[in-house]
Write a structure and sequence with these properties.
Two copies of one chain form a homodimer.
Chain A: H1 3-9, H2 17-28, E1 31-34, E2 39-41, E3 49-55, E4 58-63, E5 69-75, E6 80-81, E7 94-97, E8 101-107, H3 108-117, H4 119-145, H5 148-165, E9 169-170, E10 177-179, H6 184-191, H7 195-207, E11 212-214, E12 217-219, H8 223-230
Antiparallel strand pairs in A: 1-8, 2-7, 3-6, 3-8, 4-5, 4-7, 9-10, 10-12, 11-12
The first copy, chain A, binds a DNA duplex through residues 147-148, 183-185, 193-197, 199-200, 202-203.
DNA sequence: AACAAGGGATAACACAGGTTAACGAAGGTC
DNA sequence: GACCTTCGTTAACCTGTGTTATCCCTTGTT
């Protein structure tokens, strides 16, 4: 059940079969299912447990008094909602389902046991948090400096790489593709644009042959071209496998 | 020397005199001084130690290939640059001095000793990281949803509260003020606006009586009015003192 | 089969904010 | 004291993006 998480963490460090068993177990304790547009938790809630996305897409978002909404992160299978958030008394944002969702609810005590029991898993969780922070910084840059087409292209590049790192892309025939179960309105909330302009921008990306988007499937004919348009530099995702390799001497 | 950090962490939990002594010691091991516009570290560097801002202002920033620059965070005394960043192999952004700066360089081993030695300090560091993340999410929202005057007003509100939480504001005469050693160009890089439009926006804020900004001093005649313009909600700063109080039984 | 609802696509128009350029004030240097 | 550089200010003009309003298509419902 924790397949995606394990696969993601192994971008950072190899895990022992013990580590994997521990994660599998934690992820199977309690599984919650939500319909799309339901919230996993809301701003103001007390953090109760760690949520691990098992299946489906979700988003972090904040809503201003007057209703304007910003999606601050897109969450895909394998994403952990804030390993240490339990330290805070109240959530300062909400997380909602984009598609129907299965979420593992992992008690904070279980997380603490895991991190105390395995230095490797503890470091892997840290790495995971650091990457999340790096993504947030990149989003700030994206919203602050990139114009519409660059911004959307950048988001597509990021999603493609993140999905690939958990095995959720198709790359047969040299033309990579992935499922994007997101409406243009949600894309607008994520990029700080209006829906109309998201649509215009998508049209332009199609005309320029940067993407093919039919139904829920996005195909990227030329990843390099898309990255060039986006001024995309993948270093912030830290997918370089350069962390410490699994050392067989460690338990 | 670690005065500001201690004061900030005590927003979350009371610290014992032992905790404070440990922090003081760590902060005095090695102090580095930089001139304004020098970098503490650059994108691509290996993280070597944890940097604690003792005195002066700094900023995290990212630069796109074509030179566009986004400031993703403003750092003030008491701010720690990424307690756990040493897990990553390369920095994905730079941190530069805005004013002349003193920075304590704390070895990663020292940080690990501290967190292993004191559960309270460990939690306090986590709280600190979580607040930094929350600020990053708020900046995403700021850039994505707020228009110019709201955006600048929001930044001023945030800075005021953060400075106040480390004792760096003046509140005599019911009219709070603080030192803002930041140029309009840097403000532009932080808010994703052009310098010209930052200036226009500042002028409007002055006309509307929201701020007085002379030299490096900003005065806020009516904080509530400023917060209203900014659609500001302070919950993301988690300054509520609601964390666990200091328990005398803990070491 | 008829209907409703959500999502995508377009067009026309408006305006917030970017760009360029020029000038002045303040502060640092020799 | 003269010079230079950085920063703030302002004006004129331009453009990217938001707004409003339709229309169409798809999908699910009864």
């Amino acid at each position: 059940m924790a397949f995606h998480l394990i696969r993601k963490l192994e971008q950072f460090t190899r895990l022992s079969s013990d580590d994997k068993r521990i994660l599998e177990q934690a992820a199977s304790l309690k599984v919650r299912r939500l319909g799309s547009r339901e919230d996993i938790f809301r701003e103001g809630d007390k953090p109760r447990h760690i949520n691990l996305i098992l299946d489906g897409w979700a988003c972090r978002y904040k809503v201003l008094e007057d209703g304007r909404r910003q999606i601050t992160a897109l969450l895909i299978p394998g994403d952990l909602c804030d390993v240490h958030m339990f330290i805070l008394t109240r959530m300062d944002h909400s997380v909602g389902a984009i598609t129907p969702l299965s979420v593992a609810e992992i008690p904070t005590d279980t997380i603490l046991e895991i991190t105390h029991g395995s230095a490797r898993l503890s470091r892997a969780f840290w790495w995971n948090s650091l990457v999340e922070e790096a993504i947030a910084r990149e989003w700030v840059t994206n919203l602050g400096q990139r114009e519409a087409i660059e911004r959307v292209a950048h988001l597509f590049c990021e999603l493609f790489l993140r999905l690939r790192s958990v095995g959720m892309t198709n790359s047969q025939a040299s033309c990579p593709s992935f499922e994007l179960p997101v409406t243009q309105e949600q894309l607008a909330d994520a990029t700080g644009m209006s829906t109309v302009h998201v649509n215009r921008t998508i049209q332009e990306m199609r005309e320029r042959g940067l993407i093919v988007w039919k139904g829920k499937t996005v195909t990227i004919p030329d990843l390099e071209a898309l990255q060039d348009v986006a001024l995309f530099n993948a270093n912030y995702l830290h997918l370089d496998h350069a962390g410490q390799a699994y050392d067989a001497n460690e338990p």
